[in-house]
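Human: We require from you a protein record containing the residue sequence and its fold in token form, and nothing else.

Assistant:
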Amino acid sequence: MAEREQPRVAVYRPEAKGLQQALGQLEAGVMDVVWEAGEPLCVEEVRQGLLDQKAKDAAYTTIMTTLDRLYKKGFLARERRGKAYYYRARVSRTELGSNVTKQVIDGLLTTFAEPAISYFVEALGDTDPEKLDSLAALIEKKRAEQAKGKQD
């Protein structure tokens, strides 16, 4: 079975909190509503979910446009029921977090490999020194895999 392509995040905002680091405020709110519902939702149901969360009171057409944008970016799937589209998440919160992390790290390593690695190790040592042991174990595991691959 082929692995599905993960949606790409166009912008990363480190100064923002939570999902808003990768998505806009309304997009993040919409994704929260869709994830919490656990079932396909139409535009009005998403709009009501945002109101229930005390999020921004956006117009129906604004929510419809946001859902369409998230669908086109690959974050949502949709199906037509009568005249309305119903939307469901294509990725879980965990998958989105992993995807964003991978994209950010890949970007840093492509452009700033040495300083990125150095800062990562330094920050890890400052915030959670025990994680340095986990990192060392992962490095050794990867080296063993690569060595085994060269032998095959």
In short: The first helix runs from residue 25 to 37. The first strand starts at residue 76 and ends at 81.
